[in-house]
Amino acid sequence: MKPSLAVAAFLAVALIPAPALAHAKETMRGADVSTLQRSIELGQKFYDARGRRGNPYEILEQAGVNYVRLRIWNDPTSGYSNKQKVLKQARAAKAAGHKLLIDFHYSDTWADPGKQFTPAAWEGHDLAQLQQDVYDYTYDICTSLKRQGTTPDSVQIGNEINVGMLWPTGYVNNSDFGPLTSLLNAGYDATKACSRKTQVMVHTALVGNIDAAHWFYDGITAAGAKWDITALSYYCMWHGDLANLATVIGDVKARYGKPVVIAETAYPWTTENFDHLENIILSPAPCDGIPATQQGQAQQFAAVQNTARAAGAIGVFYWEPTWTGIARNGWDTEDIENSGNAWENMATFDDSGRINPYVRWLR
């Protein structure tokens, strides 16, 4: 089918090599596909850009993905994203040739800037006990992956830990980063005891506020935190424009002397809702006037990748590109059957399971 003039113009611009990018190399072209395993088990079918049914890991590889991110929860009610399920999904990802990032939430459910619930099995543990918990759990997951031939290439010690993790003990009170740093270092040490080559990330969603990013990363640095890669979430709807993204990436890379990765980003391809739960993003043009269309999704994602790379980042991960609106794969770990998905219009696969033909993870 002949593309419209707007599509043709977008493709022409997107495919022009950018001289500013010649010196940069984006080694992590990532996708967080943590809900994919359940979607497949529920019967969701996936199709490539030409409409041919295929393995979703391979379809993503065709679109440029070389790295898969999987979150892990300690003991979720749903059973998904637990140890057993992550081991199984890691095998599928590695079989398709992808590298592997394990995202430790250290929780039985979602951990993000607004909540960092301690796992039920660790409730009431003091700081010393939690340090041992983090070490033992991290080491167990890493070595279990290693034994089956899927050693993680990188791990996150915590997820979007803007003000700490494992609350209340690991919450940063009065800018005291000591407790949090001891937990981060427990995870770092466990990872390196399992695999010296595995890279350790510290991940926040502070890219929208450079002062807050300084407060956090200065704080853990002064407290003696160890990490290899600085990881940031960037959603243009909440974290500012691309110029700000470039500024923060360049700043934290220079300030802390470590590579930077955008661990999460996404953009809607439609305003339509495909299940009973209202979508998180409803605007027809959430950022910079870019429409919530397949072409617009591709345009915004390409812009994020180009901006990040030009600023010196080594990778960008798209968050949940395969989370379609299939029934019974909801967001709530305690009611996965009925809770619905507020993200399906942000996936890069449409409601029929076909990948957006315009989206590319740029090499």
Automatic annotation (TrEMBL):
Reaction(s) this enzyme catalyzes, per UniProt: The enzyme specifically hydrolyzes (1->4)-beta-D-galactosidic linkages in type I arabinogalactans
GO molecular function annotations of the record: arabinogalactan endo-1,4-beta-galactosidase activity; glucosidase activity
Top enzyme class: hydrolase
Keyword Signal applies: yes
BP GO terms, sorted: pectin catabolic process
Keyword annotations: Glycosidase, Hydrolase, Signal
Pfam families linked to this entry: Glyco_hydro_53
Enzyme Commission numbers on file: 3.2.1.89
Signal peptide, first to last residue: 1-22
Family: Belongs to the glycosyl hydrolase 53 family.
Protein name per its UniProtKB record: Arabinogalactan endo-beta-1,4-galactanase
Organism: Actinoplanes italicus
